[in-house]
């Protein structure tokens, strides 16, 4: 039986990869979006969740810790099996099949047929906020918080672009059960993007 079976009749359990990054903020946002949220650090905990969020943080550190904690290959396997996953900022990088300006030894979980550029918007002191229209998210623009954020350089034919900045830069994409944003909706108090993801999880059932 699929781990997502009968999910539409109950509250989905969504893990937050708790190796590094803004884990607590995602746990709060997911709870507000009507999910059961829990931190995930070990491979065996992947069997207890219906979906996963990969938070913002530092992608090279996250990559090293995923290897150290034995999470890299098990999570790659679950993604290939259809586990819904949402990555924000560093999480977007971790879902990319190809990374530009990464360390030579940097690994990703992959899954989205896209090329992303690390720190594309500049350093920490060049962080900014702007309104972002996200396809599928009702109620007007969301406030996009960009902190040393990546952007999407290119995508394959199976990837849908959900949001662009005014200059055309791609900052949100979806491929099947995988969602990624350059920005941090968990830092704004607006939980519509998380609710969109929880709806994805229910639909995947």
Briefly say what this structure is:
The chain is α/β, with parallel strands linked by helices and 205 residues long. The protein is built from 5 helices and 12 strands.
Describe the structure.
It contains 5 helices and 12 strands. It has helices at residues 23-32, 59-68, 72-80, 90-95, 192-204; strands at 13-17, 36-40, 51-54, 85-88, 96-100, 112-117, 128-132, 142-146, 151-155, 160-164, 170-175, 178-181. The protein has a 7-stranded mixed beta sheet. A 3-stranded mixed beta sheet has the order 5-6-9. Helix content is 23%, strand content 29%. It is of the alpha/beta class.
Mean pLDDT metric: 92
The strand order across the widest sheet is 2-1-3-4-12-11-10
Helix and strand run: EHEEHHEHEEEEEEEEH
Number of DSSP helices?
A: 5
Number of strands: 12
Distance between the termini: 11 Å
The percentage helix is 10-25%
Low-confidence stretches: 1-6
Structural class: alpha/beta
Please state roughly what percent of the residues sit in beta strands, choosing from under 5%, 5-15%, 15-25%, 25-35%, 35-45% or over 45%: 25-35%
Largest sheet composition? 7 strands, mixed
Radius of gyration, taken over Cα atoms and rounded to an integer in Å: 15 Å
Q: What overall geometry do the principal axes of the alpha carbons give?
A: globular
Describe the SSE topology.
Blueprint: E1 13-17, H1 23-32, E2 36-40, E3 51-54, H2 59-68, H3 72-80, E4 85-88, H4 90-95, E5 96-100, E6 112-117, E7 128-132, E8 142-146, E9 151-155, E10 160-164, E11 170-175, E12 178-181, H5 192-204
Parallel strand pairs: 1-2, 1-3, 3-4, 4-12, 5-6
Antiparallel strand pairs: 6-9, 7-8, 10-11, 11-12
């Amino acid at each position: 039986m699929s781990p997502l079976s009968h999910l539409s009749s109950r509250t989905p359990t969504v893990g937050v990869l708790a190796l590094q990054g803004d884990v607590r903020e995602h746990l709060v946002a997911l709870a507000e979006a009507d999910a059961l949220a829990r931190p995930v650090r070990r491979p065996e905990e992947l069997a207890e969740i219906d979906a996963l969020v990969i938070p913002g943080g530092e992608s090279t550190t996250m990559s090293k810790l995923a290897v150290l904690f034995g999470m890299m290959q098990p999570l790659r396997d679950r993604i290939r099996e259809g586990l819904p996953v949402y990555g924000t900022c560093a999480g977007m990088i971790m879902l990319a099949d190809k990374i530009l300006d990464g360390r030579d030894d940097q690994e990703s979980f992959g899954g989205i047929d896209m090329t992303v550029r690390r720190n594309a918007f500049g350093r920490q002191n060049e962080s900014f906020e702007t309104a972002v229209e996200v396809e599928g998210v009702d109620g007007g623009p969301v406030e996009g918080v960009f902190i040393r954020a990546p952007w999407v350089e290119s995508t394959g034919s199976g990837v849908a672009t959900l949001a662009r900045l005014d200059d055309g830069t791609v900052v949100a994409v979806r491929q099947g059960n995988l969602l990624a944003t350059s920005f941090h909706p968990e830092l704004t108090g607006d939980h519509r993007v998380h609710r969109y993801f929880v709806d994805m999880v229910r639909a995947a059932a």
